[in-house]
Amino acid sequence: MSKLRTVTVTVNGVAYEKAVEPRLLLADFLRQTLGLTGTHVGCEHGVCGACTVLVDGDSMRSCLLFAVQLDGSRIETVEGLGGIGRLNPLQEAFREHHALQCGFCTPGMLMTVTDLISKYPLATDDEIRAGLSGNLCRCTGYEHIVRAVRAAVGRIQEQAP
Amino acid sequence: MKPAQFDYVVAESVDAAVAALAEGGGEAKIIAGGQSLVPMLNFRLLRPSVLIDINRISGLACITERENAIGVGALVRHHQLETSPVMARHLPVLSHAMTHVAHLAIRNRGTIGGSLSHADPAAELPMMALLLDAELHVASPAGRRTVAAQDFFLGALTVDLAADELVTEIVFPKLPPRTGWGFLEVARRGGDFALAAAAATLTVSAGEITQARIAMIGAGETARRATEAEALLIGRALEPALLDAVMHAARTGIEPSTDLHASADYRRRLVGVLVSRALTAAWRRALGEGA
Asked: B67 with B122, same domain?
């Protein structure tokens, strides 16, 4: 085993200090080291989008980052969005519009859309589809996901001052 | 663990990074965004003994406007280039091209220097560097050098970069006045690798083209310029008959490949059509008509 390195990160507002092997992927760090299994691991080479998290506010593939690289970073995962009985507006829209079936891709979808909404107007369904094109879902057919995002964009813009 | 074991070094300066590369003697790899490197590590297609992380080198992540050019640090991310107001003002064709690079999560992390050094045959940035006659700045323990984009890309995933060299900056000359641009890409799905793409700039004076640049991907092992097609345009106005001749010239001499996604014949046809449309858009923009 190569030498362990200490990393300090904040995940969903909680500070952690852990010793990690340099080759430990962020996805595995979150799931195995911290026990935060909401972040799902699909393809493990940056194609499926299931493991998307926010690093310092930007969406990134946690299977394409090493935990050791992120010393001092602020990470947000699906667990930080909301929970049962306190869904955030995006999660609420996914629930209302049946935007998930098995739910495997959902954490990645939610984190991707959280970033998309902060960076793009998402004024048309084409823009929403383009934004979601890096997240694969094998059961919904995407239509319901697009509807949920459209509803969430409207709701979040209404709430904005 | 997916990747094989490696040692990890954080480089705080360009000098430290290239010194560590030299020490690694070909077994060391630079990691910047890692969006192409980490998949290869996860598959164990690469097993470097040491990864040198350059993400913390301050000063490599800046976009700097100079009198006639824009300097882009090697650590600038694709999304940063896509949204830079300086780029939008002086090199809008480059801002637009960045929207075709993969997906937001990849564009947030992937770097300009990484994409150019990796030189995937389907990547947009090598094509844009060729189109815009960019110059790359390269550092090594022996010193610094510059290399023109047209001399940098040698083949698929092969560039003019020694084992102890690091790309530090890419300098893009600003577009001349009265220059229009066009960019078109075809991929199976948004964000996928391009089957083919074409980009063009046209500088127009008194109704005649005075400078023409055309670059293509999907036409061979590397992005390439369509120099013969460019020559046909000089001194002319863009008319349908000329456009046909240019399209034919762009298709001649290219070496598109056949793979799972498209045949060489289809790519050849596509390259011509995209060149024609990119030129049409560039012509309209040069005349102030919008695309």
From this structure: yes
Do B213 and B276 sit in the same domain of this protein?
Answer: yes
Write out the H or E segment, with its range, that includes residue B22.
helix B14-24
Q: What is the pTM of this model?
A: 0.96
Mean pLDDT of B122-137: 98
Quick one: what percent of chain A has pLDDT higher than 70?
99
- Mutation target to probe the B interface, by most B beta carbons within 10 A, among A33, A70, A75, A133 is A133
* Domain assignment of residue B102, given as a range: 63-173
Per the CB < 8 Å rule, is A2 touching B31? no
Q: What's the pLDDT at A64?
A: 98
Coil, strand, or helix at residue A4?
A: coil
**CB contact A124 to B (< 8 Å):** no
Structure ipTM over 0.90, yes or no:
yes
Check residue A137 and give its pLDDT: 96
Q: Distance, in angstroms, between B116 CA and closest chain A CA?
A: 19
Structurally, chain B folds into a number of domains equal to 3
The arithmetic mean of pLDDT across residues A104-122, rounded, is 97
Q: Which residues of A touch B189 (CB under 8 A)?
A: 133
Domain match, B23 and B104 both: no
| pLDDT at residue A1 greater than cutoff 80 | no
Q: Three-state SS for A118? A: helix
Whether A127 contacts chain B with CB within 8 A: no
Q: Which of A121, A100, A124 is nearest to A110 (CA)?
A: A100
CB B245 within 8 A of CB B232: yes
Residue A152 CB contacts under 8 Å (≥ 6 apart), including other chains: A89, A90, A92, A93, A94, A113, A117
Q: Which helix (H) or strand (E) holds B160?
A: none
